Amino acid sequence: MSSSRASSPAVSLNAVSKSFGAIAALKATSLDIRPGELMTLLGPSGCGKTTLLNIVAGFLSADAGEVAIEGQRVNDVPTFQREIGMMFQSYALFPHMTVEANVGYGLKMRGMPRAEIRRRVADALVLVKLQGLEARKPSQLSGGQQQRTALARALVIEPKVLLLDEPFSALDKSLRGSMQIELKDIQRKLGIATIFVTHDQGEALSLSDRLAVMSEGVIRQVGTPHEVYADPADRFVASFIGDVNVIPGVVESLGDGHATIRVGNGHVGASRTHLADAAPGTPVDVFVRPEQITLAALRDGIPLAGKVRASVFQGGHTDVLVDVGAEVGAAVLVRLAGPAQVARWATGSPAGLVFAVDTVLAFPKAA
Amino acid sequence: MSPLALHTLPGRLARICVVAVIGFLILPPLVVTIAAFNEKALLAFPPERLSLRWFTKALTYEDFRAGFWNGLAVTVWASSIALIVGAAFAFALDRYEFRLKRTIETILLSSLIVPHFTIGLGFLIIAAQIGMARGFTVVVTAHVILVLPFVLRSVYVSLRNFDRRLEQAAESLGAPPARVLLTVTVPLLVPGLVSGWLLAAILSFNEFTASLFVTGQRTQTLPVAMYNYVREYADPSMAAISVLYIAATAALLTFANLYLGLGKVLNVEQPR
What is the ipTM of this complex? Predict the structure, then answer.
């Protein structure tokens, strides 16, 4: 066994399922978390991501399937023997203990001598930049400081895997960004395998080495943030990650690797990966991200023409909403870089939409 | 402008109601306190001359002294036993699912509905049936039954408000279940346990109806001793004892407030 230890995944889930009464929270899910990697479980509430995390932590037991940590089956190992570090959404700091006692709790439970605990706690507090606050109670800390305490408490025991349950959702927005960068920094420095649960796709894209997109108890896609963003596996992933325009259309022709989709008064070229053998005339939805469309003056060869409904200055970029005809319905959102675009694409002005062909996806209509 | 101006008729009525309620709360202890200082051997109001002689009488009268110590012993034993039993049941009701859970809960809380004299009478009959003397065992047992619902409620509410994730956090840090209980759960439940104990102690120390049935000459508690005294005499030593009662309870609550915070003790304020 020990020879395979080094290469075995930090955490391995094999066909794990869990039901609560009649509700299947997790359906035969398999996932490997590699050593040192930050894996995000991303999805809307009720998708099963928290259930999965609780199964790894041992707070819930799987109905079926196998959970392994560093190659060892842990299905029947109680939480306190799993050597995990967990950070809770509410931080769950012990309110009757000081910062130092909170952080040292796990070491104390391991029977470590006092002097050694003191030394390690001090190191952990330096790591999360909390030195000097040892004697404070959690109620005397700011939200950010509470979070650092919770992180130090989870890390100081040198766990085999770090579990993060929506750790940023209780922080205000200005603090969130800097804490995310710090967390990622610490995680990379320590090289600790991490499972991070969030419903915030921005957080998932910026922090993950890989992410697993979940919905209705199923992992829809696993990949790097770029893979999942640029090449979503299905309609759900495409619409859950990032802003996306969903434009109804009809297959016009299928070529080698590409499809031409008729949309309103024009047509759009799309990747045909997800269309299989859809016959011409099949209704589909075109998925295209707002930053992958540019606007041009109307001229011949412009595939889709429209009229600007509104231009909204957003600071670093400009959002332009373009009407492309009644049969399309909703206006198309176009995201243009630079602030000078508001004046150029004033409300009512005609505009041609130009698509970066290999970024446009088409999915069959939802059944 | 205020929605209920004080010069309107409903406004005036509301004001009279508030004053009346507060008056009726304050008046009885006030009258009794003043009557306690009456020099004459009469429960009269207002007193003509002031004196402390009835306090001396109350503190030295042998039945009162015995009743006080009896009552204190019964209170401490009954509240402590009720706390342990009540906390165990509250824990079971909060954490576990089992058959007849609702039925058991109803039975545990039933002494809220059953009159005290019924409980007292019941214990009296049972004790007589099994040939048990009217000793302290019977008195303490009756008091445990009487205060149990209050302790149970108090601990149950604290458990309901307890954040289970704190226990999960301790567990994730390597604490086995017994150590989670000792280092996290129990310390955080202390305010609830203390408030339950205090409530039980105050109720038990003041309990009269059931005590009248189950105590004998040797085991009578202070309220029973006071009742027996009033049947024969009507001097202000009753009033003096009332004042001492109020002072003692106020001191106890002040102490609890200083060391634990009244909000926590009364369970109205949630610890963070």
Answer: 0.82
